[in-house]
Design a protein that fits this description.
heterodimer; A: 333 residues; alpha+beta; 5 helices; 14 strands; 25% strand; B: 315 residues; mainly alpha; 12 helices
Chain lengths: 333, 315
């Protein structure tokens, strides 16, 4: 009886220690994922990501993959996003950059989709990392989304276009506009949406507040700059206090490759750390970061070849080992 | 049959570590992110919260368990007669100090990251056991590539985008190779039933991946630290290899090998967190233990000379 108790006591002690850590939320472990620094700058950053002051900052590249959790699944045509971040007078600026052969800023047909980009934070900075796809029931997320088709004026009707006259001008008859769909508004248009979600099917628009975003397209690349004050203007949006790293994930859509909704390229969560240090600078030509970027398909074939070779090697290895083991075990029997 | 030394660690601790890591992996990292697919999720909010909470507790239990495990394994190696094992032991204890230092902000995360990679490489090298260690070697090389792809971006003048791509692809390829070759860890051919199970797992994952109705890719990105650029069939083969190895190890009573592989899965490649790095290091040490014959295992019973900690209250 006593030996049994003495065996259980240390186990029980470890269980209690784990419970204590959980209750106090004192996590002894520390994230070691790729970290994005939000560096201090001395002047207000411009919203053009191609400006030298942005491009000279050392970027952090994050691999992305297709979204394959919930329908509609797919995307993944963009395989890498470059991220830079700075802060100025308690205002956070995040710049995304990615390769895209075609700028898609007009979604004037059912089959035309806009390029877009999004940044996702846990609703509560410093909390446990929520599920990357729209958060989860007990952990909401705040998403900033920029859409190319919402930047600038609504597209004009092409010369060959034709639209039926609509006899009513009251908003009541423009149902989407009346319901508050931000994409249907003709006044106070904003290229960014401020969204919150606590799981699939719960995504909803909240006040844009002081969130801003601007995209620029040049030489086969998009840059999009988001900015928001450290202090949020509403609920379920993180406070950036500079002391705690904030989890952050990114997504981009390539409209001309039919990406919209869940069809997109997503990164894993990484961490954004607001730091008082100056940004590290470099002078690398864009061609070394975005060399006419295309998915490394030939290398995929090489990878598969490696696997096949490894399998053959494994079989040979088993044969070799089993022969050796039989030899070494023989005297024992 | 030469299962690894089951008296290497206190049995209660080994079991608790394996169970808590599996619970954390499947409940916190997987179930809470996939249960949401069940229709009528609004009605299931309470059960999902319960599952998430159990998963979070399992996470804390796994953190505590792996810390104690590393401390015991590190001390055992330090007290070994082999200088190589002493080096591995010192490095293991050093990793615990590094993890504590980075938690207490006593060392920069980037510095801790580079040191972590050094620890993984040195421990793998000093505990190398030939062909049986190949999967672990591939895994650690993958970790170095993945870690380099992130740490290298903020060091010096950084990496170019093309260099990052190559490192990430190398990490993913090495991870797949490690999985596909994992039956080598057994030190003998897998059992027939394990081969059938592995083949079944391969077909299942390959079919799901080909059908596009799979959460596999996003789970790979989330849990294993790579983006899933390789075709689904590559991951299916790797997963089949892992299933084969675990099945065969369990069938032959080799709990240490089975636990080691589970810890590698929980750890993932690259630098994700100090907890997951700890899992990977514990796995490397467990899988580096030589197999023991039945005669050796029998001789171990009652002997505390070689396994001084076997008599601890945790046994």
């Amino acid at each position: 009886m006593r030996p049994q108790a003495s065996r259980l006591a240390p186990i029980l002690a470890l269980v209690l220690l784990a419970a204590l850590l959980r209750v106090t939320a004192a996590n002894p472990a520390m994230a070691q994922t790729q970290s994005v620094g939000a560096w201090r700058v001395d002047s207000q950053p411009v919203m053009d990501g191609f400006a030298p002051e942005w491009q000279s900052i050392l970027p952090v590249f994050l691999p992305t993959t297709a979204q394959q959790v919930t329908p509609p699944m797919g995307g993944g045509t963009v395989e890498r996003i470059g991220v830079r971040a700075v802060h100025w007078e308690d205002q956070l600026y995040v710049m995304l950059e990615w390769s895209d052969p075609t700028p898609d800023q007009v979604s004037d047909r059912y089959e035309a989709f806009s390029d877009a980009a999004a940044v996702q934070f846990p609703a509560e900075a410093g909390s446990d990392v929520p599920f990357i796809c729209m958060g989860q029931a007990d952990q909401a997320v705040n998403i900033w989304q920029w859409r190319g088709d919402q930047q600038g004026d609504p597209p004009a009707l092409p010369d060959t276009g034709y639209v039926d006259m609509y006899q009513y001008s009251d908003d009541l008859y423009y149902t989407a506009r009346q319901a508050g769909n931000p994409l249907s508004q003709v006044e106070d248009r904003s290229p960014v949406q401020n969204l919150v979600a606590g799981g699939f099917g719960t995504l909803e628009v909240t006040e844009v507040g002081s969130l801003q975003g601007h995209g620029e397209y040049e030489d086969g690349r998009w840059t999009v700059v988001f900015t928001r004050p450290f202090r949020p203007s509403g609920d379920l949006q993180p406070l950036f206090d500079g002391g705690t790293p904030v989890d952050v994930a990114f997504a981009v859509w390539d409209g001309s490759r039919q990406e919209r909704d869940g069809l997109k390229s997503v990164s894993a969560f990484t961490q954004l750390t607001i730091t008082p240090e100056d940004p590290p600078r470099r002078a690398v030509p864009a061609s070394q970061d975005w060399p006419g970027y295309s998915p490394p398909n030939p290398l995929l074939a090489i990878g598969v070849g490696f696997v096949v070779v490894a399998l053959i090697g494994s079989v040979l290895g088993w044969a070799f080992l089993s022969r050796g083991k039989r030899r070494s075990d023989a005297p024992e029997e | 049959m030469r299962p690894r030394n089951s008296r290497l660690l206190p049995q209660g601790l080994l079991l608790m570590l394996a169970v808590s890591v599996l619970a954390e992996l499947f409940l916190l990292r997987t179930a809470t992110r996939t249960l949401i697919h069940i229709p009528g999720v609004g009605d299931l909010e309470a059960p999902i919260r319960v599952v998430a909470e159990v998963g979070r507790f399992a996470y804390y239990l796994a953190v505590v368990s792996v810390t104690v495990t590393l401390a015991i394994l590190g001390l055992r190696h330090v007290r070994s007669a082999s200088p190589w094992r002493v080096i591995a032991g010192v490095m293991t204890l050093a990793l615990l100090l590094i993890a504590a230092a980075v938690r207490l902000e006593g060392v920069r995360p980037e510095t801790a990251g580079w040191l972590t990679l050094v620890v993984l490489v040195v421990v793998t090298s000093t505990t190398w056991r030939g062909v049986e260690s190949i999967p672990v070697g591939l895994f650690v090389l993958g970790s170095v590539a993945a870690g380099w792809s992130s740490l290298g971006q903020v060091a010096g003048s950084g990496l170019t985008g093309t260099q990052v791509d190559m490192l990430v692809l190398a990490a993913e390829s090495l991870l797949v190779l490690a999985g596909a070759t994992s039956p080598l860890l057994l030190g003998r051919p897998p059992t027939r039933s394990a081969l059938v199970a592995g083949a079944g797992a391969t077909v299942l994952i390959a079919a799901a991946s080909a059908g596009g109705a799979s959460t596999f890719s996003i789970m790979v990105l989330w849990n294993l630290g790579v983006p899933g650029w390789l075709p689904g069939i590559a991951f299916a083969l790797a997963f089949g290899g892992v299933v084969t190895a675990i099945w065969s190890a369990m069938a032959s009573g080799d709990r240490v090998t089975a636990t080691g592989i589970v810890l590698l899965l929980g750890g993932g490649v690259g630098l994700i967190s100090t907890y997951q790095t700890g899992l990977a290091l514990a796995a490397i040490l467990l899988l580096a233990e030589p197999g023991t014959t039945h005669r050796e295992q029998t001789a171990e019973v009652g002997s505390t000379a070689d396994y001084a900690l076997a008599g601890s209250p945790l046994t």
